[in-house]
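Troubleshooting entry. The earlier prediction with inosinic acid gave an output that would not parse, so I re-checked the input for stray whitespace and re-submitted. Clean input:
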Amino acid sequence: MNKDIESVLVSEFQIEHIVHSLATQIQKDYANTDFVMIGLLKGSISFMSDLMKCIDLNFSVDFMTVSSYGAGVESSGNVKIVRDLTSSIKDKEVLVVEDIIDSGNTLAFVCSYLVSKGAKRVRVVTMCDKPSRRKVEFAPDYKGITVPDKFIVGYGMDYAEKYRNLPYIGILRSSVYM
Ligand code: IMP
Ligand code: MG
């Protein structure tokens, strides 16, 4: 295990199980629906890559990069679009894929942005949810796992751009960022 990880919160094996269960629900809900899956970069890379392969439907894929964090462990609350969508979502069903919901600022902003761009309906799937940290009310439509109020990394999630490559989700030692 990486020396900066205090403990493994979700193992590779558990991740696989969670992803399959989310994909099954999504496949059922989106059957016969033309939809676009929108990944929020960079945190959603591992989750979206696994999830999309488990959904046997015809859908398109796009990405957005939004930022609110800077290099620290606290959201600034000031969400900005760094990279926008590449195609129109007007009158489309949208499924946003996120790594983790913390304050809720990012998804509250992204969902209202997508609605303002004409999306017919916006739903959200997140691998992790940290509801104890909410600053704005936000509930995902699909969630993998509720996590404690700890800073976690791996499976796409970073601290200062590192640890995204870990195949598991782990709790980062506080000595790394204190
Ligand atoms: P929110 O806007 O506060 O909900 O934050 C959402 C974004 O912050 C997520 O997309 C993550 O990229 C990042 N984030 C929040 N909590 C964590 C964490 O524990 N580890 C890594 N990234 C996190
Ligand atoms: Mg993210």
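This one parsed fine. The beta strands are 5-10, 35-41, 59-67, 80-83, 93-101, 121-129, 142-146, 152-153, 169-172.
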